[in-house]
Design a protein that fits this description.
The structure holds two protein chains of two kinds. By secondary structure, chain A is mainly alpha-helical. Chain A has 20 helices and ten strands. Helix content of chain B is 8%, strand content 48%. The chains are: A mainly alpha, B mainly beta.
């Protein structure tokens, strides 16, 4: 019996120690950012949204790889260097192993995942929808912004609208282009419903941004002939135009302001912009468009002479068009001498060309954090009020609206205002307004497309215009600005190939 | 009144009492050693089958109440137990014979101890004498060459305070740690005590021995117990060692004028007509940065006890001035063990240990990322121009102008502050309760903590490292870790007929918390505040998530073991452990690790019992599963990353998905089979152990980069269980007592280990490449893991001699623009060019075998210990020569004198200034085999007669020398290389980065003087 008692005590002792030590073995991370437990306030949703929007400024998207790819694929910019990946872009012989294909692909999906993270995380936040939804709406906008690029580049794509969980996501199929567009439209409609009319910075999505993008998405969706979508595009664009006071939008009186990093913040014209702040941030989160388009040997912290317009592009601008002065650099100081573009090659750089260069970015980059005008202070307009007018004009022509001609004349009128630009190099110079009035009395689709080409030159819009209007055979023929592009094949080249490495990861993505 | 009189009085008193008791009386006895007739204190004498007993005093005397027919059991560690039957003796002399054979040692195993002869697993034990045969900073060092299957190497040559890496039976992992589990006095994950405080050290190698530690057992287990007090008089022991050290070797580098000539030859070969302008100095940089080092170690211990209470307390002070200028290490530590027999059944004890250390570091084997040239003093001393002085004419430190500018080695060594202070404390309480005959319950509760402070300051006087825009760089970091362990287990022993059964069952819970913090800034106000000037920094640098964190791991386990011995012939051991750990992924929280082993003592069978030659023979076989749980906490969870973002012109916080969760992530599992033979011959004068093992490690953690990009994870790799690695090996351990005479004895211990480490499976079956070169080399992939091959093979071009101009010899090619004198490489793809496709496996760093042999001689009061240790067949990639033959550095006379030139066209080394840039080729692969006289020691023990009157019990003096002699063909500084590559000094890089020699702290030669006094 004595033993029994001992056992009893022993048992109790063991038990008590075991209970003390007993644990559910669940991990409760504090120092690690975990999606469970991260979201508790509306500010937390904003933190996830800001990550989503920031991926777009990365070198892999707007900082260089996507923006330069879009320029090279258009009919306006030639390649002056020899890297294979850029040659493929310029000649339309793009493979799925091209870095300028897979880097934007990877980074855009990072942006989408961050937006999905914000949208899913918002479920954990208890707050009134009038407080919460305007923030979530930014994530919807960001997601639409990214998918809109993807769908225009690749066509059918893998579409995810929630954080990845489980094994099924490893083998998903491509979502058809039309379905992707429907999702983009529905995201933008949500965004338009909840975003505020005006925002503190044009880099923050607003109702006007959602609405303007909807107009552009409808216009794209309309292709060459779908009048239902032309009507929607027209109505949406007109709504923006009619509400320009509410949205605090207007054309900037001086076209040069749009490309001056020091002045752009005060302009009413940008509707949605990517905002760089002279920070050489980690992971290449900064822009390099300036050196990519700049004159090599230019003593104003010269460029690399990679993406350069052809002479024909320069000549396609009328001599009196102020936009030509703003868009092109025709002078540079090289080896101590101020020279015009006919002498740019005296730098001796192998890729230099005796042609006017793109000036929209190198002329007024503001403060910048890295040599060769990298990590600038630019705000790159993703959509601006002039484009909304041109969307309304183009859709208006298609549906027979008499307003179309007014809209295009408004854009042409501003271009004739003149303003404060430079000699083509770095000497400030005032340009008087043109004596020729902007008074088109009739307008065709071709007129609007040409106006878009001039107004939005080198703003990465042209390739998408060529694709949606199926202009390839025309613009890449012998009469095109870049001369004949023998590799152009309209049967395959409108769609970018999905990266081969991604197909290796999921063979269902073969398109 | 002296003690003897007191005792006599007590004895008389007791006699009186016992005379009154019926049939019982007090016997007086003395216990003596049979070898030298010296009394032995602290021997336990128990009356068999009772709890009555006593122990001897310091004169070996005891008194005990006995009655006729009682059987006295006299036992003492290290001696054979003697049974004496009482037949009316009044006095008794008991002679104890030392246990003749190693096979009768007691071996500590997890949660218990076994007679060595009863052990079924593979266990190496180290004797105290081996641990202290020569002074070691870390007890781990004493394992090198002493335990079969155990590879020991410093993390950084002879650096004061460098951690020691132990590898048992090869590494079983790629991305997880291969460090063994260290268990000190039962505390799992303890830090190694001072060598002088260690009583036993065992290395558990096979699964039968380690599976009781379950998920933490697959890298082997080192079990350490510390010294305890003995009942009897106070023992005071003082050990003091002083050593002088110098670098084991230096390279023969060009002096200033030869260097200028060398540079001019390079220029002329490269078509550069500007002559090199020789500087005004002639500096031997190696001589500048190396100095005579010294170490001193002083240990004082007290031990003793009464019948019921024993104590041991020890303090150690160690100080080292490193052989590199400005490097040093200092440590003070203490240990105390207190044990009390509270009642007949209850014993409690407390083990306390702690220490403080401070290290003055000098930058060595840096990864080369600080500036283009790195800030590593050792390689800088070899590279730097000899025609420059420490200072330029303007009084500032000179800077190299050969390629990218770098600070001079003297400046880096003396100007940079790098101080690490570590505080280490542990307390472990136990209670042991004998419940009933044979059934014991033991509970332990332990706490340990370790705090590390590190301050680094790079002053602006280092123009390249921290001058210019950096303007002084200060870094302060702290790491804290603490661990709580509770273990409770029951042990039951029972004899059943001829069988002997031992059962063990227990429960364990351990919680470990780690915290870290780092702050870094540049643009300090002044260099005079060192790193404490951090608060004046004008530019604070955000730390990474790897520098600031808190994490917590919990592990709870149930474990059990059955030992069954039948008739002292057949042995069975079976263990099982179930581990549940918080860091295991959701679907894999619990794991079971079983093992079983059989032993057969053939020598106890009737047919062999009478063998004259064979005194013992045992066969062992075991199989079991163990784990390597090196999954960092939270690694299986989905997580977010903090990234740069801006909104409305200002930087704002932002998070983006970092990784998806991996609910299936689990530990790596090793399936180990072991077969062993233990043989004793000629009365165990020869004892031999042979072991063969095969370890299949599955679910090896590797990074899977096949996650679709459209997941949008910032980290597109995920840790998954895919790889497989195999280790097979053979171990010999031989001890012979060649001569055993009164005045002269000679014993030999030999260990031999052969391990073959094969990659069985890699993710997607694809080659896995890595870089074991500093980042500024700008080379990639100089080692490879390939299925079916050994781990960490060198990868590069196959050097085919010197190009003599004209058409390259068939099958070889020269790099673009090659002219006579440039290196030729095998053109594997036959395209006439040297391209990456011509790279192949060019060397194997893994030795065929390693060995150690110790000979101990004893003549009268003198003893001599000779310990040779060696490694055979491993190759070394001499990256030092890659740098020194590159032209943008000083070079060796060997290259300068023997390079190809128009007047020396038969040379086997390419011309100076050739067209190859830091080439990774077989030209730099060398045989790394070596034989090293690791230790030679001569000791003298003073005869007791001569010191007795001084009150000294034992006095011993030793002179020893380490690394005195090395026989090797390796041309570099030292064949024991340990450059850990560009990835930094994390402890996993050693799994795959092997055999690269570049800028590690050099190995040292030392001469030691030791004194040991016992009162």
């Amino acid at each position: 019996m004595k033993n029994m008692k001992t056992y009893k005590y022993l048992f109790l002792l063991l038990l008590s120690i075991s209970i003390v030590g007993c644990s559910d073995l669940e991990e409760h991370p504090v120092g690690i950012l975990s999606p469970e437990g991260f979201f508790s306030t509306v500010d937390d949703i904003q933190i996830a949204v800001d990550a989503s929007l920031t991926h777009a400024i990365n070198e892999e998207i707007w900082g260089r790889k996507l923006s330069i790819a879009l320029m090279l694929r258009s009919d306006m910019v030639n390649l002056q260097s020899t890297q294979t990946r850029r040659v493929e872009m310029d000649t339309h012989s793009i493979t799925g192993d091209n870095e300028m294909v897979y880097d934007p692909w990877i980074r855009i999906y990072l942006g989408i995942a961050a937006a999905n993270n914000a949208i899913a995380g918002a479920d954990d936040v208890t707050a009134d929808e009038t407080i919460k939804n305007p923030v979530i709406a930014q994530a919807y906008f960001a997601r639409a912004f990214y998918y809109f690029h993807l769908v225009r580049l690749f066509g059918d794509i893998p579409y995810l609208d929630a954080p990845v969980e489980g094994d099924a996501a490893y083998s998903i199929n491509l979502t058809p282009e039309s379905e992707v567009y429907d999702n983009i439209i529905s995201d933008l409609e949500f965004a338009k419903t909840w975003l505020p009319n005006t925002v503190a910075s044009r880099a923050i999505p607003s109702k006007a941004a959602a609405s303007s993008y909807l107009a552009l998405v409808y216009l794209t969706r309309a292709g060459t002939s779908d009048n239902t979508y032309f009507q929607k595009a027209f109505d949406e664009a007109k709504e923006v135009i009619d509400n320009k006071e509410t949205y605090e939008l207007d054309l900037d009186p001086d076209f040069q302001t749009l490309f001056n990093a020091d002045k752009i913040d005060a302009s009413l014209e940008p509707i949605f912009a990517l905002d760089y702040n002279a920070v050489e941030a980690d992971d290449n989160s900064y822009d390099q468009i300036c050196p990519m388009t700049g004159v090599s040997g230019d003593e104003d912290d010269g460029g690399w002479s990679v993406a350069v317009p052809t002479m024909a592009v320069y000549e396609s601008f009328e001599a009196g068009d102020y936009r030509r002065d703003v868009s092109f650099q025709t002078e540079a100081t090289i080896k101590g001498a101020l020279v015009d573009y006919t002498n740019f090659t005296i730098s001796g750089n192998g890729s230099a060309a005796n042609q006017p260069y793109i000036a929209k970015y190198t002329r007024y980059p503001g403060q910048y954090a890295r040599g060769n005008k990298r990590a600038t202070s630019h705000n790159y307009s993703m959509i601006r009020y002039a484009e909304v007018l041109l969307i309304a004009a183009e859709a208006g022509v298609e549906i027979g609206s008499p307003l179309a001609v007014d809209y295009i004349n408004e854009v042409r009128g501003r271009a004739r205002n003149g303003g404060q630009s430079t000699s083509g190099g770095y000497t400030e110079q005032a340009f008087p307004s043109s004596t020729i009035p902007a008074d088109l009395t009739s307008v065709t689709v071709a007129d609007v497309l040409e106006e878009r080409r001039l107004e939005l030159a080198f703003e990465c819009k042209r390739w998408y215009d060529i694709k949606r209007r199926q202009l390839g055979d025309q613009v890449f023929g012998a009469s095109g600005y870049e001369g004949a592009k023998p590799d152009w094949n309209s049967a395959v080249d409108y769609d970018t190939p999905i990266p081969n490495d991604e197909i290796d990861r999921n063979s269902n993505l073969t398109n | 009144m002296n003690l003897k009189i007191k005792l006599t009085l007590i004895v008389i008193l007791m006699l009186n009492i016992t005379l009154m008791a019926q049939g019982s009386y007090t016997i007086e006895g003395t216990v003596l050693s049979a070898t030298d007739n010296m009394p032995i204190p602290g021997v336990s004498i128990i009356i068999q089958n009772t709890s009555k007993g006593t122990s001897t005093d310091f004169d070996g005397n005891f008194n005990l109440d006995v009655k006729q027919g009682d059987v006295l059991v006299t036992s003492f560690m290290g001696f054979k137990t003697v049974l004496t039957t009482i037949a009316n003796q009044k006095t008794l002399n008991i002679l104890l014979t030392e246990e003749a054979s190693a096979l009768d040692e007691v071996v500590v195993v997890g949660y218990g101890a076994r007679r060595k002869s009863d052990v079924t697993g593979s266990v190496s034990s180290l004797k105290t004498e081996e641990l202290t045969a020569f002074p070691v900073l870390n007890a781990e060092q004493a394992l090198q060459g002493r335990a079969a299957g155990v590879v020991v190497q410093s993390n950084n040559g002879g650096e004061p305070g460098a951690p020691i890496k132990i590898n048992i039976r090869g590494n079983t992992s790629i991305n997880a740690s291969s460090d063994p589990l260290i268990v000190v006095d039962g505390f799992v994950g303890g830090s190694m005590p001072q060598a002088g405080d260690i009583k036993t050290l065992q290395v558990l190698k096979d699964a039968s021995a380690t599976a009781i530690y379950g998920s933490r057992g697959s890298n082997g287990v080192v079990l350490v117990t510390t010294k305890k007090g003995r009942s009897g008089k106070l023992n005071v022991e003082f050990n003091s060692t002083y050593a002088v050290q110098k670098t084991a070797n230096s390279l023969d580098l060009l002096n200033a004028s030869d260097f200028a000539d060398y540079q001019n030859q390079i220029r002329s070969n490269q078509g550069n007509s500007n002559p090199y302008v020789q500087g005004d100095y002639d500096t031997d940089w190696q001589d500048k940065i190396y100095r005579a080092g010294s170490t001193s170690n002083n240990q004082l211990s007290f031990s003793g006890g009464s019948d019921k209470v024993n104590y041991y307390a020890s303090g150690t002070y160690f100080k080292q001035d490193g052989i590199l200028v400005n490097s040093g290490y200092e440590r003070v530590s203490f240990l105390s063990n207190l044990d009390a027999q509270v009642t007949d059944k209850l014993k409690i004890g407390l083990n306390l240990t702690g220490g403080l250390s401070a290290k003055d570091g000098v930058s060595t084997q840096s990864n080369g990322s600080v500036t283009v040239g790195g800030d590593d003093v050792v390689s800088l001393a070899m590279r730097f121009e000899p025609d420059k002085g420490i200072y330029d004419d303007d009084g500032t430190f000179s800077v190299s102008n050969l390629d990218a500018p770098v600070d001079n080695p003297w400046a880096v060594a003396t100007q940079r502050d790098d101080n690490t202070e570590i505080e280490n404390f542990r307390a472990n309480f136990y209670a042991n309760y004998d419940i009933i005959e044979g059934l014991t319950f033991k509970t332990t509760v332990g706490l340990s903590s370790k705090n590390t402070f590190r301050g680094v300051y790079m002053p602006r006087t280092l123009k390249i490292t921290a001058g210019g825009a950096t303007d002084g760089r200060a870094i302060i970091s702290e790491k804290k870790s603490k661990s709580v362990l509770s273990e409770n287990y029951l042990t039951y022993k029972k004899e059943i007929g001829k069988g002997d059964l031992t059962l063990l069952a227990g429960y364990s819970y351990q919680k470990t918390t780690n915290k870290a913090f780092l702050s870094e800034g540049t643009g300090t106000l002044s260099d005079s505040f060192s790193y404490y000037g951090l608060y004046t920094a004008t530019n604070l640098i955000s730390p990474s998530s790897g520098d600031v964190y808190v994490n917590e791991t919990e592990i709870q386990s149930q474990f059990g073991r059955v030992n069954y011995d039948y008739d002292d012939k057949y042995l069975l051991t079976a263990t099982v452990r179930r581990d549940g750990a918080s860091n295991f992924a959701e679907n894999e929280k619990y794991a079971i690790f079983p093992s079983a082993a059989l032993g057969w003592k053939i020598s106890n069978e009737d047919f062999m019992k009478d063998s004259e030659n064979i005194s013992s023979l045992k066969l062992r076989a075991s199989y079991g599963v163990t784990g390597n749980p090196s999954i960092a906490p939270y690694q299986s969870l989905a997580s977010l990353a903090s990234i740069y973002a801006s909104s409305n012109g200002i930087t704002v916080p932002a998070v983006t998905p970092y990784q998806s969760s991996n609910a299936d992530l689990k530990w790596e599992s090793s399936y180990q089979a072991n077969f062993g033979v233990d043989l004793g011959m000629y009365n165990n004068r020869i004892s031999l152990s042979l072991d063969y093992y095969n370890i299949d490690t599955k679910d090896v953690l590797m990074f899977d980069n096949s996650i679709p990009w459209y997941f949008g994870n910032y980290n597109d790799e995920i840790l998954t269980n895919v790889g497989e690695i195999n280790n097979t090996g053979f171990e010999i351990s031989l001890n012979t007592r060649n001569i055993v005479k009164d005045d002269f004895s000679w014993t030999t211990d030999l260990v031999f280990s052969k391990n073959k480490n094969t990659v069985e499976k890699l993710i997607f079956g694809a080659d896995y490449f890595g870089n074991g070169a500093p980042s500024y080399f700008s080379v990639d992939n100089n080692y490879i893991l390939r299925e079916g091959e050994e781990v960490g093979l060198f990868y590069g071009f196959d050097y085919a001699g010197v190009y003599q101009g004209g058409t390259a010899p068939a099958g070889s090619a020269v790099m673009t623009g090659g002219v006579a004198g440039d290196p030729l490489f095998l053109d594997l793809d036959d395209d006439g060019k040297v391209t990456n496709a011509d790279r192949k496996i060019i060397g194997n760093p893994n030795p065929d075998f390693t060995w150690g042999i110790t000979n101990s001689f004893k003549y009268k009061n003198f003893d001599l210990n000779l310990f040779f240790q060696g490694s055979q067949g491993g190759e070394i990639f001499n990256m030092t020569n890659v740098q020194l033959n590159n032209g943008d550095a000083n070079t060796t006379y060997d290259y300068y004198n023997n390079a190809w030139s128009t007047t020396n066209t038969t040379a086997n080394q390419p011309r100076v200034g050739n067209n190859s840039w830091r080439e990774i080729s077989s030209r730099f692969v060398e045989d790394g085999s070596y034989i090293r006289l690791k230790n030679i020691a001569v000791g003298y023990t003073f005869p007791s007669e001569s010191i007795e009157k001084l009150g000294i019990e034992n006095l011993r003096f030793t002179v020893s020398a380490q690394n005195l002699l090395t026989i090797t063909n390796y041309s570099g500084l030292d064949p024991e290389v340990n450059y850990y590559g560009a990835s930094g000094d994390n402890n996993t890089s050693a799994n795959t980065v092997r055999g690269f020699d570049f800028g590690n702290y050099p190995t040292v030669k030392s001469v030691n003087f030791s004194l040991s006094v016992k009162f």
